[in-house]
Amino acid sequence: MPTTLQGKRVAFLATDGVEEIEYTKPREAVEQAGGQPELISIKPGQIQSFRHLDKSGTYPVDRTVADASPDDYDALVLPGGVANPDELRTHPDAVRFVKSFFDAHKPVAAICHAPWTLIEAGVLDGRTVTSWPSLRTDLRNAGATWVDEQVHVDNGLVTSRKPDDLPAFCDKMVEEIAEGKH
Predict the structure, then answer these.
(1) Does the active-site annotation cover 105?
(2) What CATH number corresponds to the domain at position 69?
(3) Catalytic pick from 52, 105, 113, 152?
(4) Predicted TM-score (pTM) of this structure
(5) What is the 3-state secondary structure (H, E, C) of the chain?
(6) 4-28 pLDDT, tens per residue?
(7) Containing domain of residue 21, as a range?
């Protein structure tokens, strides 16, 4: 299976409240596989990450979602944290950005609470996903089948439940990005 991301650009869509390890570990996995990660956000400058409910590091934004073209990226990663996806799903530019990856059949990876943004984008009907357990009803109401698995792949969409799932999530994310469009 291909695991090199040489020449692939990967958008990481996040804002304040992102769970730090759910941003940093997948980003490291993309870099280690030879890919080029870029942090896209709803605001310029930097974003504040958290370790559960405590502030942690800040990370520089490469470009705002309003200035980013989905055509410039090979895949999308949506880190979790409770506040991050809840804020993203209220911004039409962020929702359109997410939906465009599905329209183009590009790989998308979402962990923990990140599927909230996928619900808002209307891209889960008929798909099977996993997430933090509290999203189960929201996902079912959006037309998805929810499963309690460490990582689940559905036609290029990689989902996981929590930070403990990051090793499996990162492996599958890199594999799906390397495969390309689905």
Answers:
(1) no
(2) 3.40.50.880
(3) 113
(4) 0.97
(5) CCCCCCCCEEEEECCCCEEHHHHHHHHHHHHHCCCEEEEEECCCCEEEEEECCEEEEEEECCEEHHHCCHHHCCEEEECCCCHHHHHHCCCHHHHHHHHHHHHCCCCEEEECCCHHHHHHHCCCCCCEECCCHHHHHHHHHCCCEECCCCEEEECCEEEECCHHHHHHHHHHHHHHHHHCCC
(6) 999 999 999 999 999 999 999 999 9
(7) 9-179
